[in-house]
Amino acid sequence: MKKLLTSPSKMALPEIESGIYQNILKQATDISLNLMAVKVTNHPEDFLGWCFELLDVAKRRINFDLLEDTQLPTVKKLQDLLQNAISYLQLKSLRVAPWPVLMMFIEGNKEALALDEQLALLKHIDALREQKLADMIVEDRLVFTGKYAATHDTSAYPFDCEWFAATKSAKGFHQVLADVPFSFDEALTHIPLEGDVTEAHYQAFIVAYLQAFNGIDDTPTLAPATRLLAMRRPDVFTPVMASKLDTLCMALGVARLSNRDFGRYWDDIVQTIHAMPWFRQSLPANELETTLTRYKALLPCWFYYVDEDTPEQSNYFKALNKPKRTSSGRATSGTKSVRRGKESATVLVDRALDNPDLPAYLQDKRDSIIAEVEKGRSVNETIQLLRTIFG
After folding, report:
1. Which superkingdom does the taxonomy of this entry point to (predicted)?
2. Measured on CA atoms in the order 356, 136, 189, 160, is the torsion positive or negative?
3. For 325, phi and psi rounded to 5 degrees?
């Protein structure tokens, strides 16, 4: 373990990495006796590999039974520092990595990234993009803007809509979205759905976006705006998260960006990413890569740290694995049904009934299905129940 802890001092690290190493070492020192009890045989010669190895020790191989309660926050801080370091180093690689290297990384980590689920979200967004937010049902509006709700039926929404910069904590943003969604529509009209997007387009969007918050007792922030932009044009705009903004800026080699700095986002984030070799010279070699070129500006989102536990943090995964209903139709373990609006229930049912493989008698039961879905039952559950009864 001592050899592992000291090996980065021999790696000739750049100044930023050296600072990261020193911060990590400080936390490790506070639990050094516990770490020394872990046998280490793998000694990576690069800093990224070193971070992964020490993180594995801090998460899985250290004996937590021997830790004092007062040491647990130190272990958590060590884990967080290592995860942030991995995110920084992986994002930094985007500065020079060619397209094939990006594709190799994404395909090699597709399970940890929950890639299929994230692509299902983007496919759903594709179908919404030409609609106005004000015309969408509530569930679709939240999908577009990045906030999961209990009314997101897993059969109709087989994904967590909070991938790509969740907005659930942006209370002012969601107040505007609920009260005057057309104000965000007005902002989005300045961003063309096809062709080049210029700085003038972006600036016009920002003016309208900021105006939407007039009369709202909350300061507009950058992160929710970038979610709107990224879903409107995922080939142009990269969404940012307030909690990861410092890591992203450091990795891109730009000065720290405030979550209220709308001006610098275009130059320091959008233009910096557009200038990278993989972005300018993408050469898709298969169907997946061709798909990913449509969402090219979202690719940096997949270079933050993930592990095998990440997919289980998805709201979709949690919803799929919540306690099942009993035969009486009630949910077990204290869960309860969540009522949907009539409009939402109607849209969800009509989407399901559009399947030509469903028997004709289900079309005659449309109103009954809508009534059950409105009460909170899932669309698939209701259809399966009717097929059991009448099939």
Report:
1. Bacteria
2. negative
3. -70, 150
Q: Could you give the C-alpha distances from 186 to 4, 106, 202, 212, in angstroms and in order? A: 55, 35, 13, 9
d(CA 114, CA 125): 17
Cα(89)–Cα(359) distance, integer angstroms: 54
* CA 211 – CA 201 distance, rounded (Å): 16
**Would you list the DSSP string of 47-110?**
HHHHHHHHHHIIIIIS-GGGS-GGGHHHHHHHHHHHHHHHHHHHHHGGGT--HHHHHHHHHHTH
Residue 297 CA to residue 227 CA, distance in Å, equals: 12
Tokens at 202, concatenated? 């972006």
Q: How far apart are the C-alpha atoms of 187 and 207, rounded to whole Å? A: 8
Q: Is 134 exposed, middle or buried (0-12, 13-18, 19+ CB in 10 A)?
A: middle
Q: Is the pLDDT of residue 334 over 80?
A: no
d(C-alpha 154, C-alpha 338), whole Å: 13
**What whole-number distance in Å separates Cα of residue 50 and Cα of residue 44?**
5
b/e per residue 37-71 (b: at least 16 CB within 10 A)? ebebeeebeebbebbbbbbbbbbeebeeeeeeeeb
The pair of structure tokens assigned to 342 is: 């009539």
**Domains of the chain, residue spans:** 2-94, 98-316, 342-390
Structure tokens at 165: 């910069």
Distance CA(36)–CA(38), nearest Å, equals: 5
Beta-bridge partners for 325: 331
| pTM to 2 decimal places | 0.89
Condensed to tens digits (0 to 9), the pLDDT of residues 283-323 reads 899 999 999 999 999 999 999 999 999 999 999 999 998 86
